[in-house]
């Protein structure tokens, strides 16, 4: 690690720390291709369209816009990328089509409609998975349109191949369901792990059985001493619980290690997917030592999305308060001295809100300046939303995470 990076990491005084991630896409504001009713501000208000999630497959770059304000015409979208990056203000294309993303008048429920999506994921079986929260999270006016649901789309045909309503016995509504992780060793016997940050629970879905169950554990709660944030000059407190699940390689016993953390925490925890896949174990009063504490990342290292690269055994973490992407070799003890910075930029990587690794061994990171939107206002002349991309080996080339 270079001296400059070490100084910035410890004291957080540098405006920019160079890194290996390459700027891929950037927007001043989100716009749409073939937008219906372009003059209707209740249908499309450019200012409130904030991207929250990304996923990549072939020539498709998926970008989601969660419906947290009126004026968001489509929640699940793709971007057409032609020419050479960086791509500037490319329009979003409603996916699979406008009809599925356009809500009924009066928000009448319709299971064929997509209400609000945060962080989609592509598995190794050519499927796009996502949770539709079913909720319009409007300021001071939450509208539960329909039950939250899990969707799967065949990316070779762009056809929906599965949809599962999450029962009310599992969650009261979908507001806390901000991510999904797919256990895809078996394309038929696939499992999905869905953190519920609001209700401090981890949901497990068996696609083969068409069943879902819920785990509860104290490790899913935020740490009240680690819920303070200072991002882009704004100070605030959040109490979000378990937020992201990252999976290791499959072990000889056929199961993986599931890494997880609350958003309001500096710590990482694990549990074997052998435990998670067992519906009976979810009903236990206590889980003994099945859930384990791994270690602390260090001060001010609250992380939302994280993912493990299965080729290198390196975990990448989006550090929201540090405007950074960090790395850690999961074979080592988790502590700051065993971590490194892949990218940090206090001007253009402000609040990395999503991080994912595609099937071509490339890392993608989205930043969206969310605290600025919530607590202040965007500068509409600035590039507020950025996507970064890099091949894994290149991203790690100047770090200590490969050794």
Question: Helix and strand layout, with pairings?
Answer:
Layout: H1 3-11, E1 16-17, E2 22-27, E3 51-57, E4 60-65, E5 76-79, E6 87-88, E7 92-94, H2 98-101, E8 121-122, E9 127-132, E10 135-138, E11 141-144, E12 149-154, E13 159-165, E14 181-183, E15 191-196, E16 201-206, E17 211-216, E18 228-231, E19 234-237, E20 242-247, E21 257-262, E22 267-272, H3 273-276, E23 292-296, E24 303-309, E25 314-319, E26 324-329, E27 339-345, E28 352-357, E29 362-367, H4 370-375, E30 385-391, H5 392-395
Parallel strand pairs: 2-6
Antiparallel strand pairs: 1-27, 2-30, 3-4, 4-5, 5-7, 8-9, 9-12, 10-11, 12-13, 14-15, 15-16, 16-17, 18-19, 20-21, 21-22, 22-23, 24-25, 25-26, 26-27, 28-29, 29-30
Care to describe what's here?
The chain is mainly β and 403 residues long. It has helices spanning 3-11, 98-101, 273-276, 370-375, 392-395, and strands at 16-17, 22-27, 51-57, 60-65, 76-79, 87-88, 92-94, 121-122, 127-132, 135-138, 141-144, 149-154, 159-165, 181-183, 191-196, 201-206, 211-216, 228-231, 234-237, 242-247, 257-262, 267-272, 292-296, 303-309, 314-319, 324-329, 339-345, 352-357, 362-367, 385-391.
Oligomer: single chain
Termini Cα gap: 12 Å
Question: Kindly state the mean pLDDT as a whole number?
Answer: 95
Strand content: 35-45%
Helix-strand makeup class: mainly beta
Total helical elements: 5
**Number of DSSP-assigned strands:** 30
What characterizes the major β-sheet?
A: 5 strands, antiparallel
How would you describe the shape?
Answer: globular
Write down the Rg.
20 Å
Strand order of the largest sheet: 1-27-26-25-24
């Amino acid at each position: 690690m270079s001296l400059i990076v070490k100084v910035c990491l410890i004291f957080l005084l540098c405006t920019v720390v160079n890194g290996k991630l390459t700027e891929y896409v950037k927007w001043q504001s989100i716009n749409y291709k073939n937008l219906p009713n372009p003059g209707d501000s209740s249908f499309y208000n450019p200012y409130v369209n904030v991207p929250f999630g990304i996923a990549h497959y072939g020539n498709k770059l998926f970008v989601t816009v969660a419906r947290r304000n009126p004026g968001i015409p489509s929640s699940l979208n793709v971007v057409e990328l032609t020419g050479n990056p960086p791509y500037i203000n490319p329009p979003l294309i409603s996916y699979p089509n406008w009809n599925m993303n356009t809500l009924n008048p009066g928000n009448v429920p319709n299971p064929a409609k997509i209400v609000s999506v945060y962080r989609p994921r592509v598995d190794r079986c050519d499927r796009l998975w996502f949770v539709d929260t079913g909720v319009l999270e409007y300021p001071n006016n939450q509208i539960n349109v329909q039950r939250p649901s899990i969707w799967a789309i065949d990316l070779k045909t762009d056809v929906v191949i599965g949809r599962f309503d999450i029962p009310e016995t599992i969650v009261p509504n979908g507001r806390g369901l901000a991510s999904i992780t797919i256990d895809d060793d078996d394309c038929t016997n696939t499992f999905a792990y869905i953190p519920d940050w609001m209700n401090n629970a981890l949901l497990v879905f068996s696609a083969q059985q068409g069943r879902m169950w819920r785990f509860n554990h104290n490790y899913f709660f935020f740490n009240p001493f680690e819920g303070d944030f200072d991002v882009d000059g704004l100070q605030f407190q959040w109490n979000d619980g378990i937020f992201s699940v990252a999976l290791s390689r499959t072990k000889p016993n056929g199961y993986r290690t599931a890494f997880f953390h609350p958003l309001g925490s500096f710590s990482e925890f694990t549990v074997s997917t052998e435990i998670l896949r067992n519906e009976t174990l979810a009903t236990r009063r206590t889980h003994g030592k099945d859930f384990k504490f791994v270690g602390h990342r260090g001060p001010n290292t609250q992380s939302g999305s994280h993912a493990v690269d299965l080729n290198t055994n390196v975990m990448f973490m989006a550090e929201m308060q540090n405007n950074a992407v960090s790395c850690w070799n999961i074979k080592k003890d988790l502590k700051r001295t065993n971590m490194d910075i892949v990218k940090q930029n206090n001007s253009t990587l402000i609040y990395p809100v999503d991080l994912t690794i595609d099937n071509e061994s490339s890392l993608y990171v989205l930043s969206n300046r969310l605290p600025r939107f919530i607590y202040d206002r965007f500068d509409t002349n600035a590039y507020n939303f950025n996507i970064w991309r890099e091949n894994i080996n290149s991203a790690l080339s100047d770090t200590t995470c490969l050794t």
